Amino acid sequence: MSYQGVLHRYSQFLDLPSHTLNISMLEGNTPLIPVPRLAVTLGGGFELFIKFEGLNPTGSFKDRGMTAAVSEAAGRGAKAVICASTGNTAASAAAYAARAGMSCIVLIPEGKVAAGKLAGAVAYGARVIQIQGSFDDALTLVLGITQNHSIALVNSLNPFRLEGQKTAAFEICDALGKAPNWLCLPVGNAGNITAYWMGFRQYEKSRSSGLPKILGVQAEGSAPLVRGEPVKNPETIATAIRIGNPARGEQALEAAQESGGRIIAVNDDKILEMQRLLAGEGIWVEPASAAGLAGLKSQIQSNKIDLNGAVVTAVCTGHGLKDPDIITQRMVSPSALPPDLERLESFIFESDY
Fold it and tell me: What letters, b where the CB count within 10 A reaches 16 and e where it falls short, cover 328-353?
């Protein structure tokens, strides 16, 4: 098999210790999907592509960083990994630890993790512990554990996570032949926006691929980087970015500023509206994944961004199956009919379909 995951494909660009193994599930190589109809809906005059990270092995972008973090930990002989998580990190850490034959412990905020993500962590064999507090409380506890015990931290504070995650920027440049003019993406714990900027800058030095402006988007109820202070009790339907004190907040702000971009916030209604618009293109993402494009739409409508002739990439970080609750809770129950052809024909053709 020629493709062997991001550590193999981009090894020359990754700053990883020599002891690092290659614990991989062929992550990365996710599609860059053109969505011209959605671009027209948003105002037109530019090219729009979706980097659909939900097609990674565990359904989110976290796999890029986790292959690096777990590979490094396994290479130095670690027997267990630990993380705090709003869900996607938990599932990814559990899967890659299982792949490496390691134990995994995940701390989650009680009652704040989507069922699809929690189920993944459990299915992969992690020991899941609910903390009666926020993600930030869980992360503080995880840091205490790793300082006192020989267990590997695999949250985005782990620098090797960023080494893996920056490969998405490489893939975008390889697919487009250059960097896009704008990159928009959700911002939660802020590791991803930091990693993308690392990747684009590194590729520009070696490939003269150009640099994008970055639009980072938080949910209004969980927008510490926009407010300029931590949010004690963050609340948003976008569970993956429900984080009140991002571990890499300062680096995220620097990335946005250096790129000539910005970090903004949008409300939950706009996030859910964009989730529906993406589904109308055949791309089902979890709510948090729609935040980047929701922010882009907001900037277009308020005339705060000029996209005439631009190439724009939106990063959709997780698959809709990771957080289906918002859909299942609001959907109308399917119609029930007897197994009768005439009744079925009458039902289908009495209205537009």
Answer: eeeeeeeeeeeeeeeeeeeeeeeeee
